[in-house]
Design a protein that fits this description.
alpha+beta; 9 strands; 4-stranded mixed beta sheet; 732 residues; Heat Shock Protein 90; 24 helices; elongated; transferase; 5-stranded mixed beta sheet
Length: 732
């Protein structure tokens, strides 16, 4: 990952084009998937280059030493070319496979170090293959390479107990390591694919959502301003000082001028929300801003913008309904929610306040809770549905926690199988109590992993008590192995077989569920201290071979640390890039939505209402005239029809606008009932039928129409004094 926060484009093969889409905000097809592939491939290729160094470096004085180093040099060139994108990752895997078999085929010394070198080579190859290849192909590649290496050692080395033990253990190590890596890779790829799909779905829905929001806002605006004013005029309730009448009419005219503003700008900071609230006459109080800022900082940028928009909407409701100039925004420490409170007049029906926020909340994946009673104020709680509270690493890193259970199960199975192999092969050399010691260490490790995974699933991070449990487990295991499980000879039975795998598994799980340095650091330090102590207490001469026995575990832990760091950095970079792209897309969609609503003809219908408001603003006394009140009542009815339509129903809106244009000169009132938009064919037939009824109606008649669906298709019902029996029903 490059330092500027951009995604590293130096991925193998065609991934570079998929990861970095330079200028087109519509190309978000595979940003997460390509990023995960890039991280996994680069990790595998890095392991391919570095992992063979250890087994090669311990082959002191072997006749094939120079030849193997030459083979590694060729493999190194292939690996570097693959990292730079000039060769396929498969080429590096093939050369790596050949090098592993060559190491086994040239092993002629049956000691622990050389046998362990073969095991480490097979383990690392299996893990690397699982990061690049699909699971079945990776397991097949690991199995074939391991069997070839085992066959070579069986043919070249004497059939001693030590050789037999390693030959049986090597496939278990390799296949279990490959299976664990395959689970991690497959899960990350699956989560990345779902993230890409969600991002595409969000972008595809933005325009429809913009149209829906604009239509809903237009309806609310008309209802809160012009419709209420015209209704008051029609019923003679707009009385009092003439200057108040003029001010209200002018305010409604200003509202009509902004009816096309969808208001979907991307919010980035809480200060912007506070400024918007101040413009509405609401002062925002935040007693302790630290928890609020921490809550917002723990969200990805795109999610943060949506939460800020919901806070702004809650404050807008305070300005509209609470009748108080102050609102409070607060969040408890380590909370996963933010609250907006006021001490206003409250509301007997909280659903009325919740409805305006439900559409945005449903799209965002947020739970909205409203507590209000008449005269007691209102409290709005906004709770985002996030997998790992407080995590700043994004969706990909949040997905590493659930992997821990599967990895733990696989590695505990490996630990048990290796112990069984050692006990069966080394029955005579097994010290007293070693079986019970190994079983007890396995049980302690399993219990510790259950505690770690369970705590992480509940809170998203590990607490001090869990770290104490880990420390107690490591200490108890070290004491058990040191006092009851130390054999008289060097090898896997002394360290690796009983405690090395358990320690590595514990470190990997902690890194997966909580990658913070202050958590991972102490765990790794405890494991290193325990391992060092066991090495010093082990049989004489084993200290020099201990690094060889533990190198695979060290490399695996280092690989997981690198992978998690890579995912954190990449996830943040992609989140920021998608935020920028979404801003561009939202601006385009807002413009498109505005044009779409301008084309539905509602603006032409508002001209008559605006003209009436201008007339009253110029002559407030006109509100006493019966003709003005009749015009106001009729225009109020027309606008209520428009405001009551389903949101984002352009065909139905155009139909109603056309019928209003026909009804207005005939002074006919209209009303409509419709649950959803209609198609062009239905609208054309309905226009013809209802227009004829309007023309045949007398002035001041009321014409009502409704669209209904049943088994036979859509039907139109018209209720009007001028039709036979007052009701006309027709299939459309």
């Amino acid at each position: 990952m490059r330092s500027g926060g951009a995604v590293d484009t130096r991925a193998a093969g065609p991934l570079r084009d998929a990861i970095w889409h330079r200028a087109d905000p519509h190309r978000t097809t595979s940003m997460y998937a390509a990023g995960v592939d890039s991280a996994l491939i680069r990790l595998a290729l890095g392991m391919a280059v570095a992992a063979p160094l250890v087994p090669l470096s311990i082959r002191h004085g072997a006749d094939d030493h120079i030849g193997l180093w030459c083979g590694y040099a060729i493999h190194l060139v292939v690996g570097v070319l693959a990292i730079r994108g000039y060769a396929r990752p498969g080429a590096a895997l093939l050369s790596w496979m050949g090098l592993v078999v060559a190491i086994a085929a040239t092993t002629t010394v049956p000691d622990t170090a050389h046998l362990r070198a073969v095991v480490d080579a097979c383990i690392m190859f299996g893990i690397g293959a699982a990061l690049v290849l699909p699971a079945r192909r990776a397991l097949a590649a690991a199995a074939s390479t391991t069997l070839a290496a085992t066959a070579c050692t069986a043919a070249l080395l004497p059939a001693t107990t030590t050789v037999l033990r390693y030959q049986l253990a090597t496939p278990v190590y390799s296949l279990c390591g490959a299976a664990a890596a395959a689970v991690i890779a497959a899960s990350l790829r699956r989560v990345a694919l779902l993230s890409d799909r969600a991002a595409r779905a969000g972008l595809d829905a933005d325009r429809a959502l913009a149209e829906t929001r604009l239509a809903a806002r237009r309806s609310r605006l008309l209802h809160d301003t012009v419709i209420n004013t015209l209704g008051a005029i029609a019923r003679g309730r707009l009385t009092g000082r003439e200057d108040a009448v003029v001010a209200r009419c002018r305010a409604d005219l200003e509202a009509l001028a902004t009816v096309g503003d969808v208001g979907t700008s991307v919010l980035r900071t809480l200060d912007e929300v506070i400024e918007d609230a101040a413009a509405l006459g609401v002062r925002v109080l935040i007693a302790d801003r630290t928890p609020v800022d921490a809550f917002l900082a723990g969200l990805p940028p795109s999610r943060r913008s949506e939460i800020l928009a919901l806070i702004r909407e809650a404050l807008t409701n305070v300005a509209k309904h609470a009748q108080v100039p102050v609102a409070r925004v607060w969040s408890a420490p380590d909370s996963t929610a933010v609250h907006v409170d006021d001490d206003g007049v409250g509301c007997a029906d909280p659903q009325a306040l919740r409805t305006s926020m439900d559409a945005r909340a449903a799209h965002t994946g947020v739970a909205i809770t409203v507590h209000t009673l008449a005269g007691t104020g209102t409290s709005v709680t906004i709770t985002p549905e996030i997998d790992r509270p407080g995590s700043q690493a994004g969706t990909l890193v949040a997905s590493t926690g659930p992997l821990a259970a599967s990895v733990s199960a696989i590695m505990l199975t490996q630990f048990a199988l290796i112990s069984i192999i050692m006990f069966v092969v080394d029955r005579r050399d097994t010290p007293p109590g070693a079986v019970s010691t190994a079983a007890l260490v396995w049980t302690l490790t399993a219990a510790c992993l259950v505690a770690v995974i369970g705590t992480a699933a509940r809170s998203g991070r590990l607490s001090s008590p869990v770290l104490a449990i880990i420390g107690a487990t490591v200490t108890a295991s070290a004491v058990l192995v040191g006092t009851h499980g130390m054999p008289a000879t060097c090898g896997t039975t002394s360290i690796v077989g009983w405690s090395g795998d358990a320690a590595a598994t514990l470190c990997v799980v902690v890194i997966l569920v909580d990658g913070r340095v202050r958590v991972v650091g102490p765990v790794i330090a405890m494991v290193v201290a325990a391992t060092t102590l066991l090495t010093l207490l082990g049989p004489q001469g084993c200290a020099s071979s201990a690094p060889v026995l533990l190198v695979a575990d060290v490399l695996v832990v280092a690989a997981v640390v690198w992978l998690r760091h890579r995912l954190v950095t990449m996830s943040r970079a992609i989140d920021h890039r998608q935020m920028r792209m979404r801003s561009i897309r939202m601006a385009r969609d807002q413009a498109a939505a505005t044009e779409a609503l301008r084309a539905d003809g509602v603006g032409d219908t508002l001209i008559a209402a605006a003209a009436l408001l201008h007339r009253i603003a110029a002559d407030p006394a006109a509100t006493e005239h019966a003709s003005v009140r009749a015009d106001a009542e009729r225009e109020e009815g027309y606008l209520r029809c428009i405001a009551g339509l389903p949101t984002a129903a352009p065909i139905l809106t155009r139909l109603l606008v056309d019928l209003i244009a026909i009804a207005r000169p005939h002074e006919v009132r209209l009303s409509i009932i419709a649950a959803a938009d209609v198609d062009e064919r239905t609208a054309a037939r309905a226009r013809e039928v209802v227009a004829r009824v309007i023309i045949e109606s007398a002035p001041h008649d009321a014409v009502s129409m409704g669209f209904f669906d049943d088994e036979d298709g859509p039907s139109l019902t018209v209720v009007a004094p001028g039709v036979p029996d007052g009701v006309l029903e027709q299939r459309v």
